[in-house]
Amino acid sequence: MYRQILQGYSRLFGLWIVLAGVAAYFWPGVFAGAQKYNLYFFALTMFGIGAVLTPADFMPVVRQPWLVLLGTAAQYTIMPFGAFLIARVFHLPDELAAGLILAGCAPGAMSSNVICYISGADTAYSVALTSVSTLLCPLMTAGLTKLLVGTRLEVSFWKMFFDLILTILVPLAAGFLFRRFFRRFAEAVKDVFPAVSVTFIFFICAVVIAANHDRIAEMTSLILLVVLILNVGGLSCGYLLGTLFELGIPQRRTLSIEIGMQNAGLGSVLAIQNFGPRAAVPTALFVYVCIFSAAILCEFWKRSRENASHGETGTT
Q1: Do the beta carbons of residue 225 and residue 286 sit within 8 Å?
Q2: Angle formed by the axes of helices 170-181 and 38-52, to 10°?
Q3: Are 97 and 158 in contact (CB under 8 A)?
Q4: Contact 160, 142 (CB under 8 A)
Q5: Per the domain annotation, does 314 fall within a domain?
Q6: Which domain range does residue 163 map to?
Q7: Based on the structure, what is the number of domains in the chain?
């Protein structure tokens, strides 16, 4: 019974994010003091993710490495350079530009795996892409941020690199080893880890909203617009790329989701640590935009799949 409850809780990830954001906006004092613990929250999130990963999750990398290379390369080019271009076109202030670019430079969001599953995309491909982009993020996220933000603000590549090692790779490896050496216990509580990760992610977003309460109240529609353009642009480019390479419909959907949805929770943590709370506004907003666009896509693709199956039934 408890497994069904935990699984249901994890599936309602988007709802908890929205509720946490609303709570943080109206009662910022409850969350604001926890800002200094954001790195620890995210490390615990990655431990939980590492504890549910298995060697089988990486099999698509072995079977079709070019597909994973395609998706990873697209993710670390389309989104970072797209964010950079959008920031230039709309003349964003330096801190907001840094936040938007950080959202683009982040690895894939783990929640994208759930979205892919619900929408009928290729879930194994999604897990492989998210895992590989996450493993590469200390080098790629830090390097791309240095390249694209360094002309506007001072960026410490090595500080960000080691922050990412400690926040991503170390807890991810610890979770993976925990599952390996305590397999029975890990299997018994495996549904707890995604629920814990979901809890920490929405708590991180709540902390960012609380820390930026006054700035969000003054936020112009321009920031919402640029975040929306980045998200929709990533989703569209991902699907078009899959079409260009003549991938199947499930793989096209996966590319769309993986490229359009970024780990903006990580981006928020890095923005606060490196550029200050104001830089975290676009990254926090990106989380909510991703959730709403993903929900719309899921519903659209689910309906199109149902209509297709009804059409096939009608012709037989």
Answers
A1: no
A2: 40
A3: no
A4: yes
A5: no
A6: 2-306
A7: 1
Residue 41: give its domain's CATH number. 1.20.1530.20
How crowded is residue 150: how many other Cβ atoms within 10 Å of its Cβ? 13
The sign one gets for the Cα dihedral 5, 6, 7, 8 is positive
In a domain, 205, yes or no: yes
Does the predicted TM-score (pTM) go above 0.70? yes
Environment class of residue 218 by beta-carbon count within 10 Å: exposed (0-12), middle (13-18) or buried (19+)?
exposed
* Token couple for 260: 């359009």
Q: Tell whether 316 is covered by a domain.
A: no
Structure token pair of residue 241 = 């790329």
Q: What is the full per-residue pLDDT of the chain (316 aa) written as tens digits? A: 677 787 777 777 667 778 887 888 888 887 777 767 777 777 877 787 778 777 776 677 678 889 989 999 999 999 999 999 999 999 998 889 999 999 999 888 766 776 776 677 887 788 788 888 888 888 898 899 889 987 666 667 777 788 778 877 888 888 888 888 888 887 777 777 777 777 777 777 777 777 767 766 666 688 889 999 999 999 999 999 999 999 988 899 999 999 998 887 778 778 878 888 788 888 878 877 887 787 788 778 877 765 655 555 554 4
CA pair distance 118, 76, nearest whole angstrom: 25
